[in-house]
Predict the 3D structure of the following.
Amino acid sequence: MEKDILSEVIEVEKEIQKCLEAEKATSRDWLEKVKKESGDELVREEKILKESLNKSIEAAKKEAELKAAEIVKQTEARAERLAKLNDETLVGIVGKQITRILPG
């Protein structure tokens, strides 16, 4: 009788071991699947971020170009106005500025 009980216990332990091995295999498969899905998701997110960064860079470049063009336009207009000043006007302006700079 003890041999029957011992044999039964051994059989149950073997069955438990098989179940554990099956669960380990299932867990490994699931883990691999999750790793692959995570990696794929990471690649997709990285692509989206790169595209967003490139769009932001392009927008910033266009904005900088527009600002630079406006600055150049304003500077050219100012230079044109200054170029039209006659010598008498320039001497008067310089004279006023010198009295501000020099003491007494």
User: Anything to note?
Assistant: The chain has a mean pLDDT of 92. The helical segments are 2-83, 87-101. The CA atoms of residues 42 and 98 lie 66 Å apart.
